[in-house]
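Let's practice the habit of predicting before peeking. Look at the sequence and jot down your guess about where helices and strands might fall. Then scroll down.
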Amino acid sequence: MPHTLRSFLEQVDNRVLRITDPVDPITQVGYLCSESKGPLMFENLFGFDDWRLTDILIKDRAGQAAALGLDDVKEVCPFLAGRMTAGPGKSRILDHGPVKEVKLIGAAADLRKLPIPIHSDGDAGRYLGSGVTITRDPETGIRNESILRTQLTDDPHKAPFWMAARHNYQHFLKYKAAGEPMPMAFAIGLHPVYEIMSNWSGLHPDFDELEYAAGILGETLELVQCETIDLEVPAHAEIVIEGLVHPEEELPEGPFGEFTTLGTGAEGPAPVFTCTAITHRKDPIFRHMQATWFTDHQPLITLPMEATYYNRLKETHGNTNVIDVFVPPWASQFMMIVQVEAKWDGQVPDMLMSALSGPNLHVKTVIAVDEDVDIYNAEDVLWAVSCRCDPAQDVFIHPNSRLHPLDVSIPQVGDEYTVMRIGGKMGIDATRPPTWRARERENLSRVDPMGKGDDTVERLLKLVRQQR
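Done guessing? Here is the structure:
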């Protein structure tokens, strides 16, 4: 059986909070999703009969582990990193799939009839933030996927969207140069691994991100042909939106509360998606990805980033013992924490430079800590920065680097583009001296409270830790 959104929801059914009270998806789910720690299913959507809405599926490592079929949350990053080295899976085209059960073509394809919410107070309108956007390179024929913010308007078929300078934007520029409209589709409601890998930033000259995800899941990706455009889409999606992006058409887009939890950064004239068809399952589940504050939005981007950097940083000095990598959502993807055991002097600073010059524009601060520091605990990380770091020797700043276009703390260069910000990056070595200097390393080792390791004490720990 293929991996789908429904198969994942069945897998984590014991964690899903089902809300049967009537909820307005446009004005009320945003805050509820933002405050939730685990999966939600809204089963009574005011104004949208026969629809359900789900969110907060992989906000934490437990959800990510479930998506990857793991029991140990500590294995998420190393496991995904290992699977990514195996390369993509295969795909095949079917004559029919569940996403074709209901077809709305032409005038019937009204975007406003989908339960698309307003994410944040101050947004320019309702925003689709959960559609895996599919385009194809007109020269190579290779598809590309990403997740783009797309704004609904008063026109039921027109939706401006924002994209940074990456593969789908390169596709658009090629169509624009040829004076032709670009076919584009949104696939909503996929298994989380397909959503995760749609956010992977890497070169893929002969495969697309959906095929990469299929390889990680160990299956063949099943696709169906679109109804109104020349493009293939996942057969087991809950919803597919089809349309065209005309080369010279623009509309105002934004503001929108982004993963930074800020509402500014990229608003302005934007390309326009014109909807030509909507297909969906008979009992559709709308997969929402609340953008603010700290929700699925952040780990969907950071998880493939963590795995990519895990592989990259292990190559420092030929073989660096990188234990884990974490890009915390509470730092809005702009910070990376690396858990490492260094053997030699210079190894950690070199690894920090590798992290700061990686393929993603997000990371501007990297902190290296030892294996005895819990990288998922901000208190533990800040303790290491405070007690194992000499700012005069262990911190360096690299100026004049390109940073993420939505990092509004960094100056924007020029007014013509909304994707060019130049600023500084910082590396912080909060590790002990390397293992070859054992005596100096021991001087910065933490003491253990008396009783740690005692079996009787261990049995009582759970009760003590739950105390309020």
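How did you do? The radius of gyration is 23 Å.
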